[in-house]
Amino acid sequence: VVKVFQLPFCGPHVIPHFLCDLGPLIHLSCSDTRPTEMLAFVLALFILITSLIITIIAYSNIVVTILRLPSAKEKQRAFSTCSSHLLVLSLMYGSCVFIYVKPKQTNRLDSNREAALVNTVVTPLLNPVIYTLRNKQVHQALRDALSRLKLQKQSFGG
């Protein structure tokens, strides 16, 4: 960030993105940004690989613990929970790799917007949805709402 703010900026001061991220900000500079882009690339790669290794170690420990569970039902339930978490993690890491792990940050700003949307909106929204849909009371409330909807539709001649 310090390196980016040392760049000279001229021309339009509008970030072509919905958030102030390094790639779009670097794109606004009117100087040679290759050293800054390479530094951003190396740092992003280091951060993503380090956090991915920590995540893999943590989930490996979780899998080992699950495999030690005595009943098949407990194992199935635990793996079911882990699989939804891994789906969210895959979306998050995938979008981060797509956005940050490329040497030239100024390319594909339009596609970066969609990936940033996945990273900043979709992924955080999925966690509560996953936890909520696993709740038995929520399942029952959804069933009740659907049956009420069907009854209303039938009573109005639908």
Automatic annotation (TrEMBL):
<protein>
    <recommendedName>
        <fullName>G-protein coupled receptors family 1 profile domain-containing protein</fullName>
    </recommendedName>
</protein>
<dbReference type="InterPro" id="IPR000725">
    <property type="entry name" value="Olfact_rcpt"/>
</dbReference>
<dbReference type="GO" id="GO:0005886">
    <property type="term" value="C:plasma membrane"/>
</dbReference>
<dbReference type="InterPro" id="IPR017452">
    <property type="entry name" value="GPCR_Rhodpsn_7TM"/>
</dbReference>
<keyword id="KW-0472">Membrane</keyword>
<feature type="transmembrane region" description="Helical">
    <location>
        <begin position="38"/>
        <end position="67"/>
    </location>
</feature>
<feature type="transmembrane region" description="Helical">
    <location>
        <begin position="79"/>
        <end position="101"/>
    </location>
</feature>
<dbReference type="Pfam" id="PF13853">
    <property type="entry name" value="7tm_4"/>
</dbReference>
<feature type="domain" description="G-protein coupled receptors family 1 profile">
    <location>
        <begin position="1"/>
        <end position="131"/>
    </location>
</feature>
<keyword id="KW-1003">Cell membrane</keyword>
<keyword id="KW-0812">Transmembrane</keyword>
<keyword id="KW-0807">Transducer</keyword>
<keyword id="KW-0297">G-protein coupled receptor</keyword>
<dbReference type="GO" id="GO:0004930">
    <property type="term" value="F:G protein-coupled receptor activity"/>
</dbReference>
<dbReference type="GO" id="GO:0004984">
    <property type="term" value="F:olfactory receptor activity"/>
</dbReference>
<keyword id="KW-0675">Receptor</keyword>
<dbReference type="InterPro" id="IPR047132">
    <property type="entry name" value="Olfact_rcpt_6C-like"/>
</dbReference>
<keyword id="KW-0716">Sensory transduction</keyword>
<keyword id="KW-1133">Transmembrane helix</keyword>
<keyword id="KW-0552">Olfaction</keyword>
